[in-house]
Each structure stands twice: as C-alpha cells, then as structure tokens.
Batch of 2 targets.
Target 1
Amino acid sequence: MIKENLFGKTLSELQEVVIKIGLQKFVAKQLTDWMYKKRIRSFEEMHNLSKQTREKLAESYDISYTTSTSIQESVDGTKKYLFPVKPHQFIETAYIPEGDRATLCVSSQVGCKMGCLFCMTGKQGFQGDLSSGEILNQIFNIPEFEKLTNVVYMGMGEPFDNLDEVLKSIEILTSDYGLGWSPKRITVSTIGIIPAMKRFLNQSKANLAISLHNPFEDERKKLMPIESVYHLTKLLDEIRSFEFSGQRRISFEYIMFKGENDQQRHINELARILNGIKCRINLIRFHPIPNVPLESSSNETISRFQVGLKRKGIITTIRASRGEDIFAACGLLSTKELVKRQKNEDY
Amino acid sequence: MPKIKILNKTGKILLTKTYVKNIQEIAPEIFTLSFPRTEDFRPGQMLAVALNIDEAPRLYSIASGNKEKDYRILFNIQSEGFLTPRLSDLKVGNRLFVSKPFGSFYGTNKADYWIAAGTGIAPFISMMKSGLGDNKTLIHGGRALESFYFADKFKSVLNNNYIQCSSITKAEGIYSGRLTEYLNITENLALDRNYYICGSSQLIIDIRDILIRRGVPYNQIIAEIYF
C-alpha cells in the first residue's frame, strides 16, 4: 500500500487528517513543527508524540522526502537539480547564488501545457501537476536550504494552472506554523491566466511576475498561445484595478528576441500599456533552444532597450545570465531524461 | 470587438444561467451541446461553461455559426474529468451556466490553413458555418472515420481542400497515417499562408515544430491550445 505523504499539507489539512484517525487536533500543530520547522523526516523522531500516536500515523502516512537524482553545477555557482516525481517524470530546480542573495527557482508542474514558442519545457508536453509537497520538496531537500533568501516559481510549468497547490506551498512557506518567511521573499510568475491571477492576488501576499515578451497582442499571440484566451490588455486592466499594498512587487519578464520584440515601437507600446502600473521590467537574454527560430537580441540592443524604457520612466533591469553552461533555465535536462526513459521503455 | 467583462471582482468568470436545448452523441463519447445564444460572437471565440454557479468553469470553443440561434459546443468525455461526464448526462431543459463569448482565435477571410484533431475541430466548424470556409484548406487528423466530426459539412464546402488523415483507417480519399506524418511529407504546404491550429498542447507543439522545420515562419502560425 502506498502511504499518503503528509509533507506539503497545510495545518488545516493536517487537522482533518489527525481527527480522521482519532487523534487530538493539536497533533496537527506538532506535525507542522516537526516537518516544517525542524525538517524531520520520520515520525520516529517526533519525540513529543506518544509512541501510540507515532505508530498510528505511520500506519497510513509518511513524511518522506524525494532526493535529487542529478546535480549539474555551473562555473558561476548556479546548480540545477533534477528530482524524480513519478516513474519517468522529472522536474528541474535551479539554485542561483548571487552575492548575499540565494534564489531557488522551483517547478510547479511536470512539463507544461501552455505551448510558448520559446520554452523548452513546453516541448515535453504536460505530464501532471505537482502537489504542494512536491513543490516544497524542491526547497526543503537541497543542501543549500539554509542559505536561501528567495524562492521564485519560474521553473517548469505554469503556476497559475496549478494554483491550489501553489497557494498551499506559499502558505506553508509564509505562515507561522511553517517557515514564517516574509511573502516578499517569494515571487510567482505567470503567463497571464487572469481568473487564477486575481485569486492569487487576493489570497496571497507574494510578489507577482508576468511573462510579457511582446506588448502587441497579435505578435504576442504567436509567441504565447494564451494570448488568444486572456488578452494582455485585460490582464493589465485587472492589475490596474487591484490595490497593491505595502511592498508587494509586480514585475514583467521580457525575453529579448532579435528583430522580433526589440525595436523602438516595442518600447513605445510598453510605455503606453504599462502606464499607471508601478512596476519593473526585467529584460532577459534568450538562450537558444533546438528547433526554435528565435535568436537573442545582442547585448548592445538589450542595453539600448533598457535605456529607452528608462527614458519613458520605467524601472528596467537586465537579468544577469546565470548557469548558461548547464542550461539552467530551459528544461533541457528533464526533457533529455524523459526521452531517455521513454526510449528505455520502448526497447 | 466590443470589450466585455468576463470576470467579477474576485476573479471568477461571470456566468449567466441558461438551459440545454439539445444534446447529441455524434460519435462514441463525443457530444454536441446546444443552448440559446445571447450575444454576438466572432467565430473562433470560446465560452466558459459550468453546471453550478460556484464551481470553476471550463472553456469550450463555440462550434456553431455566428448567425445560428443557439450556441453549440463540442466535447468528449474525459473519464476522470471534472465536468464532461456530468455534461454528457444533461437532458433538454437542464440548467447550466455560461459566460459571454471571449478570446481572439478569430477566423479571417484569407486563404488560411486550418489544422485540427479531435474536438479541436470546434472553432473551424464555427468559422465555416459563419461563412469563412470558401478559400480554406483544412487538414483534419483522427484515428478512425468516426473521429472526423462534421466531415460531411466540411467536404461540402471545402471539397478537395478537406484533407483527412487517419492513423488506423484505410479508405479512399483519406491519407493513411498520422496528421503529423502528412505534414512532414506533403509537398503542398504554402509558406506564405497563415496556419491556424487547435488541439491539445502536445499536438500544437508537434505541428508547430513541423511547420517551422518545413519553412513556415513562426509568425504565420496561430495556435489555440485546449488548456
């Protein structure tokens, strides 16, 4: 019998579990202390639970972690972890140290169904959603856990296509019963699924990043099919109507494609459509992937684009390329592993 | 296109109550479901559909013409799906909740290619029934003959420009092989035309890769993925 894993469950979910098996409600809080604060991996180590309670929990449940099966390390210190999820399914997690910051880029799905032209993960298709536990496992189960300053949901998958589990994982990262992190340390990136984005804004305090990549709807549609469903203008209207309080940040990701989205007219249109939104644009160099007819804009063009946007009053940064030698950002590792396993199965 | 509000303040898609006018199983586990049309729409647009006002709706391309009295959607039963098993149990007169039409996978008057498999054919039957079929080429993939939903209607308008690719059926006038195989070998791909594709993400990605490899510029490929 496969035991249900309690790791990744919220306090209220754990309360339901313990009540269901006849334990006191407070046991749920003890479980969160052990799992999330002390990062204990077996019921046996939970010394303040009676032997009977531990045995009862262990009968039907476990709290085990999944370890990575592969680690690649870049010359710049970036590391890419490959975690198995289900048989033949893999996800990637990138650890990116930079000065006094250490960011972890986590996956929210195995593969992706959004089909963005420039994305390697999309090429492996969609294989499934990650549970909250599988999302958190990427964070809790790397050697650099203690060094982490930020988590970004920008790995494989579209987080807002798996919002329930993403929200649960954020709750555990930020709540008192969990890690107690400030939500400012967390950024969730989306291609713009509007209903889910509104729910996220209302139910979480984490930062929001939107993959924009082209300000013209007709051009964006050809890079990102989601544009046919949820228009950028409507997305921005929704953002404008939301009251961003405190230090919650909104940023726009903009991958620079040579000759496609790096011209003056794009600067002008970005300034027009983002008018009234307090935000930042992150310009990103494109790392070519196989069979995709797009090239990165040159460094000079990217710098010029940045200056152009700054002149329009938009805070604009150029994201430093990290882990290029290990393809840290593009899903190549898991796709390769998936193909390898499928081939093994076929033969 | 008029701007329409499809979301309420909490991000829920705005839905209004309507009722089933017709439900038909047009092939094993494939259904059309009709209900009164309340708004104008552009062929290629979609509707959000739910059976209860408080549940998350699912999105379906409209499969009826924009002059017809009713909206029609096309769906297949997903055995573990949240909505389609219940949709298939609906009877005439039953209640359901539907959004206004939205999305911008619009058909055009140009000589475009349409490519679809399975229920991905829905926007194209809408476009054809709305008078946009005359100069189109439809490449339609399916396993067996019964998978070519609306084939008679497409044949009657598109004639030789209706190309069926069947992965398991051999029959006269039908390409015997997968849709992707056909696209890989056909010598009749115009590089100066737009390609509209509708289907699952894997289908879209595979077809887009083939078209690009064969020289179709990426910005002439417009995809609608069944999310």
Note: Chain B has two domains: 16-98, 113-225.
Target 2
Amino acid sequence: MSGSIYDKPGNATWAQCPSCDHWFHVSPTLLAMDGVDLICPGCAKPFPPADAKALIEN
Amino acid sequence: MPDLRSYLNEIDNAIFRPDTPMSVVQEITALQHAMAARNANPAIFVLQPKLADGTISDMPVLTNLFASRELAAKALGIDDHRDSAKALSNLSSKAIDPVVVDAADAPVRDIVDEGDAANLLSLPALRQHEDDVGHYITCGHIVTYDPDTGIDNMGIQRLWVRGPRLMGCYMLETSHNMINLQKFWSKGEPCPVAIWVGHHPAVEMGAQAKLGYPESHWNVAGGALGEALRLVPSITHGEKIMVPADAEIVIEGFLPPGRIEAEGPFAEFSGYQGPQIPNPVVEVTCITRRADAIYHDCGSGLPDHLVPDNMGMEGAIFALARQVAPSLINVHVPVSGRRFHAYLQFKDPKPGEARDAMMAAIAFRRLKAVFAFDDDIDVFDDRQAMWAIATRVQWHRDVMKLDGLTLAPLDPSAPATGKTITKAAIDATLPTAAKPGQPKPVAPRNRVSDTAFAAAEAVLDGIDITGWPR
C-alpha cells in the first residue's frame, strides 16, 4: 500500500557525527545551506554536511 | 517598584528551595519534570547551582516561576485563573507609558561589564535536556527596534551560550524581531539587540502580548503590572534600545549581518526536540546586572514554559472568537495540547454560533484544533473535555477540517515539505432545547443530588487519602 495518503512516512532528518558517531536531529534547510557547518551536540565538533558519516533524510 | 524579588517575597510559601547543590546540566530541569509528574507547581529557587565544571555559582537560579496557573494569574492581578481569557483579551487597552530613570537609579546597573569583561559563562545557564546542543538562556526577552520608526519589539527567544561573548539566537521567520533584523541586514548593518532577564512576572507576561507591527511592548508590560515600567537607556545602544531598570540582568550586543550558523537541537515546547537549524548569532558587547542578581530560567516544554504563553493565547483567541459569538464565555488553551489545542466554552449558543466561533479561533496561527463545549463542561478539566468529546460528538457531523492553513511552528507531526496544514474544529456542544424551559433533546447526564454530594464530602473531610490505591 505504499504511496497511500494514509501512510506515515516520517518527517525528521538526522545526521551522524563523523567524529563521535552521535546521531542528531537537523533541519533540511540547514543541510541545504552552503558554507554552514553542522555542530555535533555530542562532541561539539563542527563539520560540513557533506562530511556527515551518515544522513537519514525524509 | 514591583520587581522579581518583591514578587518572590509575596509568594515565599510557594517557593521550593533545595538545600543541596543541583547541577545546571539537566538536574534542575529534572526536578521540574518530577514536580510536573506530581502536579505540583511551586517556584524553584536553587541557591547553589552547580556549573558544568563542578563549581558552585554564586548566582542563584530561579525556575518554575510560571508553572502554576493560579500564581501566574494572581501575578497579573487576576483572582481566578479561569478568568484569564477575558482579562487578557483587552490587555492593550490598559497600557501605561513607561518612564525613563537615571542609570544611578537602575539596580540593573549595579555591575557593568563591557567588552572583554563581559562573560556569558558567568551566568548559570542550564543545559536542560539530553541532546540539547548546549547551555541556553531560556527566559531572555530580546529587544530590537524597527529602524524605520524607532519603535521597539520584544519577544522571548531561545539563546545558546556558545562562548564568553557569543550566542546562537533562535529567530522565528515570522517574528517581529526577524522583521527588524532583516531591515538592518538589508542595509548591510548589524542589528542592535538587548536581552533582559528577570523581572516581576506581570512584566514578563505583559511583554509577551501579541501586538501588531511595529508596536511597542513597554506600555503593555506596564499595563499588566499596573504601573509605569521604569526604563533606562542601554549602555551600547543608548535610547535606541531601552531596558528595564529593575531587571536582574541585561545582555547587549549586535546580530552581525549575514552571519548564519547552526543552532540547536533544543528540547522544545511541544515536548519534542527541535532540530538544528540555521540562525543568526549575537556578539555581546556588554552585560549589566544587579550585584546580587537572580538568574531566571524557564523549563522548556514544561508547565513553566506553557502556562504564561497559553494564558496569553487565551486572551487573543477570546478576543477573536467573541466578535462572532456573543455566547462564548471562556477559552482554555490546555497544557496537555501544548499550544496546538483550544477549548471554547459557550452558554446557550445559537445554532451555528459555536462553529462560527471555532472558525474565528482556528485562524490563530499556533492552533491545530479547536473544540466547542457547553457551560456544564469544566474546560479546565481534560477528563471532562474528553468525556464530552466521547459522548456528544458524531464524527460525520461534528468535525470540520480546513485545508491550507498556516503551519503551526515546531509541530513535530508537520509534513516534511509544504507550508500549510489541515486544521480541525470539533463541536462537542449539545443540541438546543426546542423551547425555553424544556430539557435538551438528549439523554440527561448522571447526577447525585447536591445534598448527597455534600454528605459524601463530609465523610471524606480531613481523611488522608495519600495511601489509597490509584
């Protein structure tokens, strides 16, 4: 039944820190910005979105 | 002049003072959660806040100040919190112009730290929840001004303490402070800002009134207090940004143009974490404070955070809906619904009137659903509200869905894309009687007589029921 308007697809985007593997909640708007680093809440390391160890996008 | 400490003296027996050090990293907020779980809402005054490095701050932390509706209403001069919707619906009409005082008469100028002497890390700002990106100032009233008119704006917005003189600043896209910032930035200029922390709760709640743009908040805050607010020019911006002379702490600075950085995640009012987002930063130029300043924190997503804002919403929604529905007698924005639900209460609404009122109320941006009840339902009791919904609503008849309305900010269930949502209005009122004096054409509710109820209450009077099964 994929594609039904009654499916609950999820709406949150997650990034994984390349230094400490911590997953944290980020906005798609932030990921789309040029030159703005993400900042890991786990280890405080800043890193470009492209350097994220993994991303989960919805 | 009434201020935070005069208010604390008034409510001395409603303050809980832990007698041991408590960490600013989650422990103080955990105490608020534990209290909320017990439905106990005293203010919390932590005399020995333990900082992240293990040292004890000499600045005490006050939190949970707004958690009690009863106390919050009384701070505004409202005897019964159930009357707040009506009382706050015309707050602007009670405005009192502020007065300007000399810096020598301003307690907030006891200590002035400018330039490198200013140190945000000296404040016992809390890291409230797991996975918050850092320590946040949660009860900072951010003051900016419209460069075209010079008129101030003010709003509480979260501030991430990133260093001795740097803060991330959450600025909602539609906020009036963001309009002011964009005006400065469009000219390539930094946006001047001052942030004040701690004052009489009437001032803090009045300062949050929902006003037009540009419209000064100082006189409405004075009206809420019942006397003129004492203001003093800020050190950095002079008379362009005034600050309350009787505040506890003032932080001054600029939002440099085009400097956008990551801010968050932060546990939000919805009870869910808001994501890391792009936001401006504040570069701090000066911190002034009282010699014995009290740091005022607000527990995000807790009653402390929700109660004062929801009471303000009740006033705004009452004013909107009452225009089309004279039978509207009350509005409650329950903590259970965060800021997404409003309960409207009617006395003998004419056919269609409850729906008219719900259509007016649903336009309020933050709401996702409004509910209509009769006056026999206590709209301040969620159990009664749910009972009415369960027993008076037929879903094919009593639900209205409206598509394409403004998205409620930070709604954790909002679609990942799109800028509008569907809202709902649910009519849980009963049909009206065919003629005056006749019973309503529905089954009567179960009742015991007043006499029998009084007798039962007398049996229970004075009995300790704390050990009884729940």
Note: The CA atoms of residues 33 and 49 of chain A lie 9 Å apart.
